[in-house]
Every structure is written in structure tokens, then in C-alpha cells.
Amino acid sequence: MFESLVACNVSLSKVQKFHYLKTSITGEAAVLINNLKISEANYDSAWQLLIDEYDNKQTLVHTHLHAFASLPVMKTENVNDLRKLRDTVSSSLAALKNLDCPVNEWDDLLVYLIAQKFGPRTRSEWNLKRTEFAKLPSYKDINDFLTLRIRGLSDLSDSPKDTRRYKDDKPRSSVNNVTANKCVGCYGNHSVSKCKEFLDKTVEQRGDFARHSRLCLNCL
Fold it and tell me: Which PANTHER family match (predicted)?
């Protein structure tokens, strides 16, 4: 990117290019040219130092391979870890392809390396999935599996959780408790079943009174 936008830009002076170069790099690369002051003469020296140090195809290939080969084995079914695995492999392969590596011929190796990073549940799901293929699965097959697995786990984690707290309230009966201390007939300090006025009524009158007062007939 820097080379196409800055280094090969004939409209920029070397001083300008050196300024852009110093503001574009960090870490060890910045330390490498830190002692060179910005000047016309020093730009070529700084650029060559960086080329010699980092424009090494073998080093670049190893760096991209290491990016996903060094990822840890997943211990849990974590969406973020699965997504990181898929995206790291994808971006590394794109970079390796740009370096003229025959990544299209690496299917068996890639499938093996990626599957080794799976957690127990995902590995089990993959073992079931690969039985559906008539031939050895390709990188595309396992990448598609990863994408579907990520979507499935994402849907589960995004499901709304019921955070309501249920109270163990006792149901309230619409029928008055006839064993209460307050009589619903004469309002005395006794239950209606022991009320003299209630007991003096006929059976028919008691029934009418009970229904009108919403009393439990079985308790009378």
C-alpha cells in the first residue's frame, strides 16, 4: 500500500516520502530507521533497510502460516473464537496466495489443521458433517461449516433471556374462607359455621346465604 501510494508517487519529494514513511510504521520497523533524520539522502537508505529486513518472501510466508497455526485449541464453544479462527485462516490464505503460494493445493492439510483447533462439540459436529461428502472435504467445505456453526451459536447467544422473577404468591381464592375468625353473617368473633344466627336458618336459607356471600358450601 505504501509503495503504490507513496514510494512510487513521482509527485512527492524524497523528504515528503520519508516523512510519510516514518509516520506509517511502528514497532521494530520504526526503531530500525529511528536514527535516520528526514532528508533527501536518507530516504533511500531507510527504504532499503526496511526492504532488506522485511521484504523476504520466506519470512512473510512463515509469518502468515504461523498466524493461524499458532491459534490455541478451543476448550469451549465460543462464537468469537470460531470467528477468529475462520477469519485468521481466510486472511492468511489470501496473503499467501498473493505471495504465489499454491494454497489451492493445500485442502487436506488445511482441513486437518483447522479441525485440530475445534473444541469437543464442534469437532463432533464436524465429524458428522464430513460423512456427507462423497470425497475428502475441501477447505471450502470446512470454511462453510464454520460459517454455519458461527451463525448457529450466534442465534443461541442472541436469544432473549427471560429475566423475570416469579414470586411464589399463594393463589387468592374468590371464595371466602368460612373458618376465618370473623363471621360474615353477624360479624362476631367466630366462624360462620358456629354462628347461631346462621345455624337458626333453614337449609334453603343457609344455601342462599352461602351463595350470596360466596362461601364454600363444603366447609359449612
Answer: PHD-TYPE DOMAIN-CONTAINING PROTEIN, RIBONUCLEASE H
Report the amino acid identity of residue 45.
S
Tell me how far apart the alpha carbons of residues 151 and 149 are, in angstroms, rounded to a whole number.
Answer: 5
Q: Which 3 state secondary structure label does DSSP give 2? A: helix
pTM higher than 0.85: no
**Phi, psi angle pair for 68, to nearest 5°:** -100, -25
Q: Which residues contact 123 (CB under 8 A, 6 or more apart)?
A: 115
Could you tell me how many helices (H) and strands (E) the chain has, helices first?
11, 0
The per-residue pLDDT for range 59-74, each reduced to its tens digit, is 889 999 999 899 999 9
* Nearest-angstrom CA–CA distance, 178 and 77: 59
Residue whose grid cell is 363444603: 218
pLDDT average, residue stretch 131-159? 89
How many degrees, rounded to 5, is the angle at CA 119 between CA 87 and CA 88? Answer: 15
Grid coordinates representing 186? 353477624
Q: What is the pLDDT of residue 157?
A: 64
Contact 198, 206 (CB under 8 A): yes
Q: Is 176 helix (H, G, I), strand (E, B) or coil?
A: strand
Q: List C-alpha distances in Å: 16 to 21, 38, 91, 151.
A: 9, 9, 32, 47
DSSP code string of 141-154:
HHHHHHHHHHHHHH
What is the Cα–Cα distance from 118 to 84, expressed in whole angstroms?
12
Kindly give the interhelix angle for 107-115 and 57-69, rounded to the nearest 10 degrees. Answer: 40
Instruction: Give 147's pLDDT tier (boundaries 50, 70, 90).
Output: very high
